What we know:
Elements: E1 4-6, E2 11-13, E3 20-27, H1 31-48, E4 52-57, H2 74-88, E5 92-95, H3 102-108, E6 111-114, H4 122-135, E7 138-142, H5 152-162, E8 167-172, E9 175-176, E10 182-183, H6 187-193, E11 199-202, E12 208-209, E13 222-223, H7 228-237, E14 242-248, E15 262-263, H8 267-282
Parallel strand pairs: 3-4, 3-14, 4-5, 5-6, 6-7, 7-8, 8-11, 11-14, 14-15
Antiparallel strand pairs: 1-2, 9-10, 12-13
Amino acid sequence: MTALTLKSRNISLGEGHPLLVIAGLNVLESLDLALEVGRELKAITAELGLPFVFKASFDKANRSSIKSYRGPGLKDGLAMLAEVKAKLDVPICTDLHEIEQAEPVAAVADVVQLPAFLVRQTDLVVAAARATARHGGWLHAKKAQFLAPWDCKNIIDKAREAAPGVAVVLCERGSSFGYNNLVVDMLGIGEMKKLGVPVTIDATHAVQLPGADPRTNGGSTGGRREGVSVIAKAAVAAGADGVFLEFHTDPDKALCDGPSCLPLADAKKLLTTLKTLHEAVRA
């Protein structure tokens, strides 16, 4: 497997490198909250010697209800992320949903994320790959809930045909398992790594219960917060090169996917355990 290096930040991912931590907020709620969460996660990962990328979405375009909070939008959201990047001196990861967003997103985000629902949209993959390659970033492609691990070869091929040499990272985030449920096949992580790219685990979205939040009578996505650490640890033991995690100072008051995100106070304990597991597996 080829390891990747984010030259602008001197961060590496893959064989022979420490566990990558992509972590932050589900969606931008305020600049102050983003800075608070980012500052704490940067301090923890620095203490543990783990590379860190701050993550937050500027728009959650796939909410269950039209009434649900989506975020500040492209213009204001990218401005917030640029400020977090500058003030904390950290690389940024965010997702995009439309072709026209590719260039402005790649200009700010070091890691451009393709959402699982959209990862087969050819025009979006092409636009994201080309913009990411132009700016020297990584394309973080989430495996769709309906795809087999080996089907991700087509995502990689599309991206590389559009932008030869683009750095692609695959992300496991669970597969649809009947109604309102997801399951993670840990053997799939090894299958995805056979495609020659690093693989991360989105343990936060893997515990979602799509359209099954009892608080809103199905008007939003439910989740099993207690399962995040279980999936993260299992995936690292199975060979994941990085983890994708979402935190909040008060998860029950988070404006999006609260049932799936972890309290910020739990970050250090979990990341310490994940680092130990990763080192044990690589040894």
